[in-house]
Design brief:
heterodimer; A: alpha/beta; Rossmann fold; 6-stranded mixed β-sheet; 4-stranded antiparallel β-sheet; 35% helix; B: 357 residues; 13 strands
Chain lengths: 236, 357
């Protein structure tokens, strides 16, 4: 288990009552190492979001175990998981999901407030915004930003708590292909540079070549599918 | 507070509008409270301001002082049982008077008191009266507006009894009419009877033996039994109660609708690490700041409008009434916040992630 930032061990998730059960995930195993950026693709309803929610400690598996930074999270209480989420996980949502009434800087500082840790947060925020080319947008509100900028702010926000793992839920969904690619490039390079783990759920096959591994999920069953990756690279 | 302040600054118009509605309602609450107080004072200040706890009235009078009859024997029996200065008789009778030489009639209430006892009001202008002089009266200042001055003679239009105004007192009215104070011998000469309406006791003392036809009645009850008092106060108080309910609901609904609208946003906040407490604090902080600003602005507006109201409108807002209603308004707002807090506690972080299959 060592060196795995995130590991799923024969995980399954069943929704519904006895007579009306649906399995969202079936016996899924997955390992993501530090410095790895992994994509999960699949049609809607395939279990992608369930998988991502579980990786983000928002859902517990019905069976199997999930390890985050070598801690078995299935054994933790709700409160411990919330704490762990704040410390170790960064989320990038579909359509960025920034808080409309916070300026770009405040979006980032909020994370410090939530962690009751405002020390050095301002410098950290300034540095992240600079890295992501957003320094000139520091005091703008989300409504004043372009789609790509919003998503970059969301990425900066995800890095604010210095997480071990970044989870991205369709980060390119609201962007054109050029912007979408830029955003994923940014995510992938940051993950590698900082030696963190990244998981991206996506529909967008044009950005898969930026990932280290590609998994496909269909009806709750996960396959490693690096063929897609190579075909993507060959096109390039 | 981090979120609360920034959100209010960002959506200024939205919060200004709800604040504006709240100001109007709170302002109305204070105005009606002031009017209720004012009317109450206008109606029965002469009873309100009596520095005593208890009245002895005739049992059949149903706490109504003007219906009660206490005779001399009954009074003497009480007088023997109490220390000096603890009990005094009070005669009350409504009448119509006019200034001598004028035909205009004015409704007044006569209070017959012992000038040496505690029922005698403070004279603010002119001289006081004593027990020796008959036909001297101290009258409420409001009669000045009717053209009656010190030294003028007034006449009871029914019996043609005449009295000389020797002094003014202030804020003494009963059943919305100004009160004229006279001594007990003037009273006896005027009514041609040896009876009073009540015996007023400084302190409630159940050890005092009273005639079976009499009963002890607390001052509050006498006040409420003043003609028209309960009806006036009742309808105004009902309005105030309704306004509190309306204010509470308006705020509760406003914040609840906003909270519903922001469900997804709360989900995102929870996913990035905010807990219910943090988010609930934000909503409560918003409601608190709006209601505090609202109350302060409304108090300002109320005193401002009281200033421009004509003197004939009875308006009286005491500090403890405004403080009490301010606190109540804030509490009521916070109760309304519970609905939003409940909804926030139900939002789950998982709502932020796509659709969960």
């Amino acid at each position: 288990m060592m060196n795995h930032m995130l590991a799923f061990e024969r995980v399954s998730k069943v929704y519904g009552e006895k007579t009306n059960q649906t399995a969202a995930l079936k016996d899924v195993s997955l390992e993501v190492k530090a410095g790895e950026f992994v994509a999960i693709i699949g049609p809607s309803g395939s279990g992608k979001s369930t998988l991502l929610s579980m990786a983000g400690l928002l859902l517990s598996p019905t069976n199997g175990n999930v390890y985050l930074d070598n801690v078995e999270i299935t054994k933790l209480s709700e409160k411990e998981r919330a704490q762990l989420r704040l410390q170790k996980i960064g989320f990038v949502f579909q359509a960025s999901n920034l808080i409309p009434y916070l300026s770009v800087l405040d979006q980032l500082l909020l994370i410090g407030k939530l962690a009751s840790n405002s020390k050095g947060m301002k410098q950290r925020a300034d540095r992240l915004l600079k890295e992501l080319g957003l320094s000139h947008r520091t005091h703008h509100f989300p409504a004043q930003l372009s789609g790509g900028e919003k998503q970059r702010v969301a990425i900066a926000r995800a890095w604010m708590n210095d997480p071990e793992i970044i989870l991205a839920d369709e980060p390119t969904a609201s962007l054109d292909s050029k912007r979408g690619r830029e955003v994923v490039e940014m995510l992938a390079s940051e993950v590698k540079r900082k030696g963190k783990a990244g998981i991206m759920v996506t529909h967008d096959e044009r950005v898969l070549d930026l990932c280290d591994h590609v998994y496909t999920i269909k009806d709750g069953v996960l396959h490693l599918d690096d063929k897609v990756l190579f075909s993507g690279q060959m096109q390039e | 507070m981090f979120l609360a302040i920034r959100e209010m600054m960002y959506a200024k118009l939205r919060y200004f509008l709800i604040g504006f509605i709240m100001v109007l309602i709170t302002w109305l609450v204070f105005m009606i409270a002031g009017l209720a107080n004012g009317l109450s004072a206008d109606n029965a200040s002469a009873i309100q301001q009596i520095n005593a706890n208890s009245f002895i009235l005739q049992s059949e009078a149903e706490s109504k002082i003007n219906r009660s009859q206490v005779n001399m024997v009954q009074w003497k029996s009480v007088e023997q049982q109490v220390k000096e200065g603890q009990a005094t008789p009070l005669g009350v009778k409504m009448a119509a008077i006019s200034k001598i030489g004028k035909s205009k009639k004015i409704d007044i209430t006569v209070f017959a008191v012992d000038p040496k006892e505690f029922l005698m009001p403070v004279v603010i202008q002119g001289k006081s009266m004593n027990n020796n002089e008959k036909r001297e009266v101290v009258v409420d200042q409001s009669l000045q507006q009717e053209g009656i001055n010190i030294g003028d003679w007034i006449v009871d239009t029914d019996t043609s009894s005449k009295w000389k105004v020797v002094g003014f007192t202030k804020n003494k009215s009963y059943s919305h009419s100004p009160v004229i104070f006279m001594n007990l011998s003037s009273w006896k000469a005027w009514t041609k009877k040896d009876t009073f309406q009540a015996i007023v006791l400084r302190e409630t003392d159940s050890k005092i033996k009273i005639d079976q036809q009499l009963e002890f009645v607390p001052k509050e009850q006498v006040l409420e039994s003043t003609p028209g008092y309960k009806e006036e106060q009742g309808s105004l108080q009902m309005m105030i109660a309704f306004l509190f309910v309306i204010a509470s609901f308006i705020q509760a609904v406003f914040f609840y609708v906003i909270t519903l609208q922001k469900s997804h946003q709360f989900g995102v906040l929870k996913a990035i690490g905010a807990n219910t407490k943090f988010l609930a604090q934000s909503v409560v902080a918003q409601i608190l700041s709006i209601s505090i600003v609202t109350v302060v602005v409304s108090i300002g507006l109320t005193y401002g409008s009281a200033f421009v109201l004509p003197d004939s409108v009875p308006f009286l807002l005491e500090t403890n009434t405004s403080v009490g209603f301010s606190v109540l308004m804030i509490v009521v707002s916070l109760v309304g916040a519970l609905l939003s807090v409940y909804h926030i506690s139900k939002v789950e972080a998982i709502d932020a992630i796509g659709r969960v299959e």
